[in-house]
């Protein structure tokens, strides 16, 4: 419970999940088809990540799935699109976004659903891999920063978050 107070705004704790946000019947059918295919072929898929990806990438026309993918659009989706969509809908930012996006791109490629002027699949997957590498480096830097904060000389209780006891309700 206490950890939730320190989450960033885009990764804030929420009772709502991305997969619970209402979507048109076409988008729901599309999401269900992706999940069925991923499970049948042994690819990792997370329902909340998939909902955030498809809803973020859907066209302004209701129910239309975006099928034009470039390395730039993949990067934009991973760095801004899903985060903005999650914030706008008040849902938790999904943890397995990049793995699910790779599965989704494989699905689009397997059924030849990508637009003809989309980037080649290898370029799309490379863009996801670069995001993963950058994201991992940022997380490692953040963890290193947090570990040095715990060894600070400050005697103020908030400088030593790891020593906080959980708050339990009294009945």
Q: What labels would you give this structure?
A:
mainly alpha; 171 residues; 0% strand; globular; 53% helix
Description:
Residues 1-10 have a biased composition (Basic and acidic residues). Residues 1-20 are annotated as: Disordered. Residues 11-20 have a biased composition (Polar residues). The chain starts with 24 loop residues before the first helix and ends in a 21-residue tail after the last helix. It is 53% helix and 0% strand. With 171 residues, the chain is mainly α. It has one domain. Residues 1-13 have low confidence and may be disordered. The chain is globular. α4 (97-110) runs antiparallel to α5 (121-150). It has five helices and no strands.
Query: Which H/E pattern describes the elements?
Result: HHHHH
Can you tell me the overall shape?
A: globular
The first-to-last residue Cα distance is: 18 Å
Query: What is the averaged pLDDT score?
Result: 80
How much helical structure, as a percent, in the residues? 40-55%
Q: Give the total of domains.
A: 1
The secondary structure category is mainly alpha
Number of helices: 5
Radius of gyration: 19 Å
- Beta-strand percent range: under 5%
Query: Spans of 5+ residues with little confidence (pLDDT < 50)?
Result: 1-13
């Amino acid at each position: 419970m206490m950890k939730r107070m320190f989450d960033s705004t885009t990764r804030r704790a929420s009772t709502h999940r991305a997969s619970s946000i209402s979507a048109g019947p076409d988008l729901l059918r599309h999401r269900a088809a992706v999940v069925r295919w991923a499970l049948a072929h042994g690819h990792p898929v997370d329902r909340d990540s998939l909902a955030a990806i498809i809803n973020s990438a859907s066209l302004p026309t209701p129910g239309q799935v975006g099928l034009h993918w470039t390395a730039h659009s993949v990067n934009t989706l991973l760095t801004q699109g899903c985060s903005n969509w999650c914030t706008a809908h008040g849902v938790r930012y999904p943890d397995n976004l990049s793995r699910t996006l790779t599965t989704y791109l494989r699905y689009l490629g397997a059924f030849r659903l990508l637009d003809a002027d989309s980037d080649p699949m290898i370029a799309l997957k490379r863009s996801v891999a670069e995001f993963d590498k950058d994201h991992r480096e940022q997380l490692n830097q953040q963890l290193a920063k947090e570990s040095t904060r715990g060894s600070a000389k400050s005697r103020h209780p908030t400088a030593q978050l790891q020593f906080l006891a959980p708050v339990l309700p009294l009945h």
